Amino acid sequence: MIPSAVLADSGNKQDESELVAWTQAQIEQEIASYASRQQWPDYHTEISISVPASVDHLPACDTALYISAADQQSLPVGYLRRQLECQSGPQPWKLNITAQVSIRLPVIVSTTHIRRDTKLSATMLKPQILTLSRNEAFATRPEQLIGQRTLRRIRSGQIINPLQLQPLWLVEEGDAVVIVASKNGLEASMKGEALQSGVKGEQVSVRNISSGKVIQALVVERGKVETIF
């Protein structure tokens, strides 16, 4: 919860306009913090606050006001629910408000129709300035997406949703890999060929080039696997 300055009018009732202005400032701060973590480029926000009529009956809060999320939404875009709380004073109270948040910024869209199970390349992606008004994942930089594979078809001009992509493969079928085997403190490495694609921590089949034997190994980093005992 975030404490506020005291919001009270000269009478005994909570001032609605001050409450709305403060709530909007808190949501703007929340968006700015999220944008900084995600390294968003320049963006513009529009926020519409809806306060229930019961605010007219609330006593003025003469102590710090608090705001907390009343939903499970991590992305501060679209329909948000927040709870305001006056925790002390002669008449503590809580108030649930809603906010509709729209954000305009450059997001990554597809330059062409992309089939399912396609590895994304730079030529398939471009930034486009759009206004987003719902809770849907997006990327703002091509490097967040390049190398990942699509789990479904994507239309030309469609926003690329990172949650609809397969995590970046560190080993791809047909790649030359280094097989590392360790036991009792001893470690040996050998050349191999990946027979399956895999992400970090995934088990894949690899062929030992020297012996021709096919074994199971765990993907540990790009081009490197460890044998499973």
Task: Give the structure's gist in a few sentences.
Residues 105-166 form the SAF domain. By secondary structure, the protein is mainly beta.
Question: Would you give an account of this structure?
Answer:
A hairpin with a 5-residue loop joins strand 11 and strand 12 (about 215-220). The two termini are about 50 Å apart. Helix content is about 10%, strand content about 40%. The chain has about 230 residues and is mainly β. It has three domains: about 1-105, Thiol Ester Dehydrase, Chain A, CATH 3.10.129; about 105-165, Antifreeze-like/N-acetylneuraminic acid synthase C-terminal domain (Type Iii Antifreeze Protein Isoform Hplc 12, Alpha-Beta Complex); about 175-225, SH3 type barrels, CATH 2.30.30.760. Its main location: periplasm. Keywords: Bacterial flagellum biogenesis, Cell projection, Cilium, Flagellum, Periplasm, Signal.
Largest sheet: 6 strands, antiparallel
Number of helices in the DSSP assignment: 1
Q: Strand share of the residues?
A: 35-45%
Poorly predicted tracts of residues: 1-6
Listing every helix as H and every strand as E from the N terminus to the C terminus, the arrangement reads: EHEEEEEEEEEEEE
The CATH topology of the largest domain comes to Thiol Ester Dehydrase, Chain A
Helix fraction, binned, reads: 10-25%
Structural domain count: 3
Q: Briefly, what CATH class of the largest domain?
A: Alpha Beta
Radius of gyration: 26 Å
What shape does the CA trace take? elongated
Tell me what the CATH architecture of the largest domain is.
Answer: Roll
Through-space gap between termini = 49 Å
The number of distinct β-strands equals 13
Structural class: mainly beta
